[in-house]
Amino acid sequence: MKELFILFFGVLLLGSCGGKSTGGNKPGAKDSDSIAADSVKKRAIIIFLNGKYHNFGVQKELKSLTHDFVFENHGDGPLVIDYIETHCSCTQARYPKHPVMPGETDTISVTYEHGVYKSGSFNKSCVIHSNAEYTQELTVSGEFELGEE
Q1: Is the residue at 36 inside a domain?
Q2: Is the pLDDT of residue 38 over 70?
Q3: Binning pLDDT at 50, 70 and 90, where does residue 146 land?
Q4: Which of 7, 21, 42, 48 is 20 to 30 Å from 121 at the Cα level?
Q5: C-alpha–C-alpha distance, residues 134 and 79, integer Å
Q6: CA distance 126 to 87
Q7: How confident is the prediction for the chain on average, in pLDDT?
Q8: Could you tell me the CATH number of the domain that includes residue 51?
Q9: Which DSSP string do the residues of 20-71 spell out, in sequence order?
Q10: Could you tell me if 122 and 139 are in contact, meaning their C-beta atoms sit under 8 angstroms apart?
Q11: Phi/psi at 5 (nearest 5 deg)?
C-alpha cells in the first residue's frame, strides 16, 4: 500500500511539471492582450463619395466619355487596388497604383469608348479587385443618339 501511495504521489508531481507555460518570465513572451491585438488585421474600406453609378445621358456626337469616381478609404489599414476588371475592351479604368491610406481620398477614372456603334445605349461595369473588406463594382451607362449621315 505504501508503494502505491508513493507511485501515485510521484505521478502527481510529474504531471504538475509538464503543464502549459503561461509565459511568465520567458524572454519575448507575450500576454494574451498583446496576442489578441496582433491578431486583428487592419482592413481597408472603400466608400464612394459621388456614388458607384454614373449615367452620361443621351450623347449627340461620337466621343469617348470619362467619369471620375471619387472614393475615400474609411478603413484602418492602407487600401491597395490590385486591378480593375472590365468586361469589354470598350471600357478602361485608371486607378491609383500607390496605397491609399486611411482617411485619404483618390479617384478611379472610367472611360467608355464608343467603338464602331453609331447609336444605341450602353451599360458597362468594372469590378475593383483590392484588399478592401468588400468587393466594389462601378457602372457607367448612357446612350448615343446620332442622326444618319
Answers
A1: no
A2: no
A3: confident
A4: 48
A5: 12
A6: 7
A7: 80
A8: 2.60.40.10
A9: PP--TT-TT---HHHHHHHHPPP-B-EEETT-SEEEEEEESS---EEEEEEE
A10: no
A11: -65, -45
